[in-house]
Amino acid sequence: MLSIGTIVLTVEDIARAGDFWRSALGYVNRGEPSDDWLILDPPGKADWASPGASLALSVTGYPQHYPPRIHLDLYAEDQAAEVRRLRALGAREVDWHDYPEDADWIVLEDTEGNRFCVVDTGPYPGSPAR
């Protein structure tokens, strides 16, 4: 059985991106970063089999592609507060006019232009309302 172990994001400034994602997710460096590679783990992750996907940052020298073919969905109980917090860390709202009326997500990008969504975690589909 496979599971997602690490999600890799392309960045230009590894220190800036590392600062953003450590603050955004509360993740910690797995080891010392190199000039072009950094892996961030959930706090307390002891080994490969421990729960929680890691986030790797890779300097490749290639520009970001728009629209990106993959992005992260970050779940938030208080979406508005998380969007404010992430913007204070350097995230930017993406000017995107294709939101449906019932959208439960907001599109942001990190300090390196990697897009992600902050999803309001209202009632889980198929479960009773909170």
TrEMBL record:
Q: Which SUPFAM superfamilies match?
A: Glyoxalase/Bleomycin resistance protein/Dihydroxybiphenyl dioxygenase
What's the superkingdom here? Bacteria
Q: Which residues form the VOC domain?
A: 3-121
A Pfam family (short name) is: Glyoxalase_6
How is this protein named in the record?
VOC family protein
